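Human: Cast an eye over this sequence-structure pair and say how the chain folds.
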Amino acid sequence: MSLAPRLDLRQAQSLVMTPQLQQAIKLLALSNLEIEGFIAEEVERNPLLEATPAEDGDIPDREPVAEVRDERVAADELLSGAGDAAEPALDVDYATESHQQDSVADGGSGNDGALSMTGASAGGAGGEDGPDLDAFADTALSLADHLMAQAGPVVAQEDAFIAAHLIDLIDEAGYLSASLLDIAGRLGVPLARVEGVLAIVHSFDPTGVGARDLAECLMLQAREADRYDPCMARLIENLDLLARGELARLKRICEVDDEDMADMIRELRGYDPKPGCRYGGEPAQAVVPDLFVARTKAGWGIEINTATLPRVLVNRSYYTELAGGQQDKASKAWLSECLASANWLVKALDQRQRTIIKVATEIVKQQEAFFLKGVAHLKPLTLRQVADAIEMHESTVSRVTSNKYVSCARGLYELKYFFTSAIQAADGGDAVSAQAVKAAIRGLIATEGAKILSDDTLVELLNAKGFDIARRTVAKYREALGIGSSVQRRRSRALEGA
């Protein structure tokens, strides 16, 4: 073996995570509203990009992008695969790489049989001014402002800072969780003085605000309604017994009969356990669908929601004006970089739309029975099944289905909803979806009537329906649905009848 130095020529392949590829991966996992914000940032940064609303039903062509040439590759050539042959494919498995990323898949129509797709490219149709985000702003009066307005006329001037501190510590539900002793030490005032100011806060609207626990909140409301007698006081002191449904023990403690106990329970139900929630708080945010699925004569129509996507174009006239002027080397390099970035963004957005349509098309094909007949006919489905069918990587399908919603005749669903585990059929037939089993459990409990169904009884009824399922699985699904056990439901029924 020679130890002399020598030169060797070797050929090897390696994956290079370019900034453009990272951008394409990032775009794939974003929802339509997040894409709109991303495009706005890119338009502000890149002078060659324009984002303009398109007319309803108008699918913008990419001709303006195709005509932007010079020494760079045009976007249409990138879409057709005529670009740099050494450029890595976008749908590749990066599971073995340290960045643990995957990218958008190869473009394609994704049509299959009767399934049809209608999707815009990178620039979809949108409203003239885009979504009115100001409409979602919380313009209601906050709880703190409401309380401070009441404190002004009734709290002494020398105690105003104590009232302001107490109000600042009240949470959005209306409770004061801080210790009064700690507050007194922090402010350097006697504890009795803090308690006096808190008593004034307890008189504010909404009744029950500033309470330190649920019992005190209900007590304040009972006093306001002039129902805080010794019997009601004992009932409020033993809310844990009421929660467990131990009515017989409560009647002995409160020294009342069945009629009086039922009357006190009805009174408690009329009180608000979270009085502060009437003011301020975060408004409910509407979920904007990314896809629309509708039944057509030819099959199923799958369309991207273009209302939230601006039309992205490259300003070729501005590029020509800049390229024709006097430029130094740095300016020419910057202009070329802007052009390449704009072309790649248009390509990445277009491939994102194509990939989403392709994945959604396969999901609709696999779950057609759900769209026709409902959740009881939802089939077990995994990411790998969809990935194998459309020849993409599993992680690509995972990114496509993240944070994206589809609107159909049956409602609004997250794309992840259609991927469920399998439950074997009792008769040895095809497996059923876990969502279908959950729907069956919900339906059985909703119609159980006066006879409360135990988990063992649910297992028997589900087996009769063809679901081979264990008791522990029934309990797990019931808890996931937010439904209590048979004992809890029986106690709740007793309280309702009280």
Q: What stands out?
A: The longest strand covers residues 291-296. The chain has a mean pLDDT of 77. The chain has 22 helices and nine strands. The CA atoms of residues 66 and 74 lie 5 Å apart.
